[in-house]
Amino acid sequence: QVQLVESGGGLVQPGGPLRLSCEASGNIFSITLMAWYRQAPGKGRELVASISSGGSTTYADSVKGRFTISRDSGKNAVFLEVNSLKPEDTAVYYCYCINKQRGANSGIQYWGKGTLVTVSS
Question: Once rounded to an integer, what is the mean pLDDT over residues 94-118?
Answer without folding.
Answer: 94
